[in-house]
Amino acid sequence: MKNLLLSITALLTICFSSKAQIKELEKNPNWKKYTTVIEKTPYGKDYWKTEYTLKDGQIDTFKTFSKEELRGSFKYVYDQHANVSQMIVIDTDKKTKTVDIETKYNSEGLKIKSQNTKYSYNQNKQIAKETSKEFEESIGKEGWSVSYQYDDKGNIARAERTSFIKNNRQIDVEEFTYDSCGNVLTIDRSSTPTRKYPLIGIGGRSLDQHETFEYEYNDDCLWTKKYLVKKGKKILLFEREIK
């Protein structure tokens, strides 16, 4: 589910400024078998690469490259609930900066606030809604919120976002289906008022109203290649070397 939340955030980023994002791997217990992931994004004019080192199935450090040129190095520090509490940023001049990620929990250990986002949960202890500080303080007149519905396997089946564009309320819905490894097969998008598709993003690909994906996997159900299928043609979006 984590990687899907990142996908949903991509649409949030297109709609409006969102909080700084923490990189996460998709949920799979087999990550604990591996120590390194090299992910490449071969689409567009720029060639991006991210090299991760893993510890106990979570990202420990990562470096980002553009056309093989190092752009930044990062390290995560985790709290007792396995959420990132600090991000150490190391620039190309070896200068470091520590960014604190303030997170609050309820008595059950569920995250209820992180950065400027609040979380509420359903009876299955799944995130039911995320709201920005601005949305809550304005009683739903500014900022953004996202509501989630789940399938019987715990995957997000529907995400409904409310945001504001030039003070006008915008509702965007995404509906998802999944393959046997738990990765997204299809996304269907709708919006009120109706948007013009594709949605153009900054620093990434545009988003179509209806999208279909295919994957190549290793023996542990971890994808090594991810494709967008468009008009019967497979377009490589990401490839990963996992070791």
Automatic annotation (TrEMBL):
Q: What are the record keywords, sorted? A: Signal
Q: Does the keyword Signal apply?
A: yes
Q: Which residues belong to the signal peptide in this entry?
A: 1-20
* Source domain of life: Bacteria
Q: What is this protein called?
A: YD repeat-containing protein
Specify the species: Myroides marinus
